[in-house]
UniProtKB/TrEMBL annotation, chain B:
InterPro entries: ABC_BtuC-like, ABC_transptr_permease_BtuC. It is found in: Cell membrane. GO terms for biological process: siderophore-iron import into cell. GO terms for molecular function: transmembrane transporter activity. It holds the Pfam family FecCD. One of its GO terms (cellular component) is plasma membrane. It is a multi-pass membrane protein. Belongs to the binding-protein-dependent transport system permease family. FecCD subfamily. This is Iron ABC transporter.
Length: 336, 352
């Protein structure tokens, strides 16, 4: 019962794709999805899987091929553009670069649906713009021009614009593309905080598996049958749907590390590792890259890791020698 | 937030400064020419007072005043046309002349001049009087609108702005080619009239025609100002504009209609004047460092008027009997200004 009222956007038997003279080209079909308030939902899929197409369709920009999208129980195509713009705001992948626009001016464009014919801002509009800039931490560059900002800062400005538009639903298309790791993490944390604190329903597309697994409350996973599995990230990992969705030749999901890795069919020398968990994790990653297979079973080749985290020591049973770095260890192993 | 109000005050100051410059250049433009008339006498005449030299009074009221007013109207109209095209296509190279709108207007005028010529060979277009002027305005506006609608239709298929610009250039070339073929099969006398028109002239507008032109341009300026909010939303691209509740299709039609009225009317009366439409929006954006159309629309109108007045003063070569074609002067004077601005202020490229 509670869950029903939290849902703000839903789809029934939705098919999205393109229509042209040659016929209908469905990209994703049979979609029965729902988006909840206060949650960060990640739409995860490989390049070209149809993430943007789906987002454009449920955002009302593109028409669905089949089925229906509901916004607060109403079919989205029956809502006029002006009302919809007060319920749903977007951050798109288009690189916008009107260099002469200041940060403040761009954020205030978010008030477009609320202002009069000339776009004059009332005190209430100004307060909302101020709050939007404060929440995204961009107050300090209010008077800078968009062209002067870094990619990460610009993305925050675009998010502030959606906050100024004051909608319950926010869609972001690849908001962390082109960003470095600290900026990626910052944007994800910001979006999660906004979802939880402002009770907004936030949907973003990404192909960054680790970010989605770590931050999403809910995952929409595009699988290889051109439909979507939805659920808690961890559930989708454990029931194998995530691995299935990204399945490629020579690609295998490492359930311990939570990432994909390449596999090869060549027979490998087996190594058994013993020692501290963290040291084992990094030693294993180096050994696997060098073409060894780490096994929990007993093996001819055994490496015992001792010492502290800051000054570890690797002991190889073969020649009964101790090494101070993994590099030295690998050179010895390769010489055998 | 203090800085924001400061910026507003700065913009208000700039607008007042530009307004004063426009008035000064307006008086200078009337005073300078083949005969030099002191500015004090110019002011007296404009205020309706008698001056000693009645010959001067005639020159001022019959020749130079309509010419100076036409210069301001042409500058404002072409600049606003360019501003709207640059925002709509989000392309710094867009403008009425580049996208073939001016070429379309030329086709309309060629149709009237060359076809009307075949019916009534002895009447040149200016002898048609007020009726003729309306005919030319309508023909050139229709020509401009025709090309714009064509470009708009293609733009629905093509979303890339650079490709769109190439398409615009091609459409312009096709239009010019049609005019060329038409010229090829026309009598030399008719072609001469048309070629004189293509040189551009601010002096051909009579007092009666000026009223019609002023009404059309002022309507266009007001319409453009009403479109400020729409143009601002379009700065982020059509998808964003739509997501903010803007009816993009309606906005496109409104912007294109306004531009074709502005560019079409001026081209009809003054000939195809290039360069102003592209340069002035850049100059305005660069000076005021803003992309807000509520400021840019009045600024572009003022800067456009100022630039055309300067070009007009130079084209009359003060102190001589020669009058150079205005079309050559706008490019000759304007291009170095734009290059200077680009070199001096590096924010021009970042406009889009």
């Amino acid at each position: 019962m509670m869950k029903e009222t939290r849902t703000i956007l839903s789809t029934t038997n939705l098919t999205v794709g393109y229509k042209d003279k040659k016929g209908i080209k469905p990209v994703l079909s049979n979609l029965n999805l729902s988006l909840e308030k206060g949650k960060l939902t990640c739409l995860l899929g490989t390049n070209g899987a149809g993430k943007s197409t789906l987002m454009r369709t449920i955002g009302g920009i593109q028409k669905p091929l089949k089925g229906e999208v509901f916004m607060q129980g109403k079919p989205i195509r029956s809502i006029d553009a002006k009302s919809l713009s007060k319920q749903l705001s977007l951050v798109l992948t288009d690189r916008i670069a009107p260099g002469n626009l200041t940060v403040y001016a761009l954020v205030s464009l978010g008030r477009f649906p609320y202002t009069s014919w000339l776009g004059t801002l009332s005190q209430k509009d100004k307060d909302i713009i101020f709050m939007a800039m404060e929440a995204t931490g961009i107050l300090e560059f209010a008077n800078k021009h968009i062209g002067e900002l870094s990619d990460g800062e610009r993305q925050k400005v675009m998010i502030a614009r959606t906050l100024a538009q004051d909608t319950e639903v926010i869609f972001l298309d690849e908001p962390t593309a082109h960003l470095d790791l600290p900026n990626r993490m910052e944007i994800f944390h910001l979006l999660r905080a906004l979802a939880v604190e402002s009770d907004k329903a936030i949907l973003l597309t990404t192909h960054e598996l680790d970010m989605a697994l770590a931050n999403a409350d809910h995952l929409w996973l595009i699988n290889q049958n051109q439909t979507i599995d939805s659920g808690l990230p961890e559930d989708l990992v454990l029931n194998g749907l995530l691995e299935e969705a990204f399945q490629r030749d020579q690609l295998q999901f490492d359930y311990e590390l939570g990432t994909f890795k390449r596999t090869s069919n060549q027979s490998k020398t087996k190594v058994r590792l013993e020692g501290d968990v963290i040291l084992k994790r990094w030693t294993r990653s180096a050994l696997e890259r060098a073409g060894y297979e780490v096994t929990p079973d007993t093996s001819d080749l055994e490496i015992k890791i001792s010492g502290s985290l800051k000054a570890p020591l690797w002991h190889l049973n073969h020649n009964d020698t101790t090494y101070k770095t993994i590099q030295e260890l690998l050179i010895q192993l390769n010489n055998q | 937030m203090n800085l924001i109000t400061q910026g507003k005050r700065l913009r208000a100051k700039s607008l007042i400064l530009l307004g004063l410059m426009l008035i000064l250049l307006f008086l200078l433009d009337i005073g300078l020419g083949s005969v030099r008339i002191p500015v004090s006498d110019v002011i007296k005449t404009l205020l309706g007072q008698q001056i000693d030299n009645s010959g001067w009074q005639g020159i001022i009221l019959k020749i130079r005043l309509p010419r100076a007013v036409t210069a301001i109207l042409a500058g404002a109209a072409l600049s606003l046309g360019g501003l709207q095209m640059q925002t709509l296509f989000r392309n710094p190279l867009a403008g009425p002349s580049v996208l073939g709108i001016t070429a379309g207007a030329s086709l309309g005028v060629a149709a009237v001049m060359l076809a009307a010529g075949t019916v009534t060979t002895t009447f040149s277009i200016r002898e048609l009087g007020v009726d003729g002027s309306w005919l030319i305005i309508i023909a050139s506006t229709l020509g401009a609108a025709m090309v714009l609608v064509l470009i708009l239709g293609i733009s629905f298929k093509i979303r890339d702005n650079v490709v769109m610009l190439i398409v615009g250039l091609m459409v312009a070339n096709i239009t010019i080619a049609v005019v060329s073929i038409w010229q090829f099969f026309s009598n030399p006398e008719q072609i001469q009239e048309y070629i004189l028109w293509t040189f551009g002239s601010l002096g051909g507008v009579t007092n009666e025609q000026l009223g019609a032109l002023a009404i059309i341009v002022l309507t266009g300026v007001i319409l453009t100002f009403f479109l400020s909010k729409t143009l601002n939303a379009l700065l982020l691209g059509e998808d964003y504009a739509q997501s903010m509740g803007l009816n993009v299709k309606w906005a496109r039609v409104a912007i294109i209609a306004t531009t074709s009225i502005l560019a079409g009317a001026i081209t009809g009366f003054c000939g195809p004047i290039g360069f102003v439409g592209i340069a002035v929006p850049h100059l305005s954006r660069s000076f005021l460092n803003t992309s807000d159309h509520r400021t840019l629309v009045p600024t572009c109108a003022l800067v456009g008027g100022i630039l055309m007045l300067v070009c007009d003063i130079i084209s009359q070569v003060p102190g001589s009997q020669t009058v150079l074609p205005i079309n050559a002067i706008t490019a000759l004077i304007g291009s170095p200004i734009v290059i200077w601005i680009i070199v001096k202020r590096k924010n021009l490229k970042a406009s889009f």
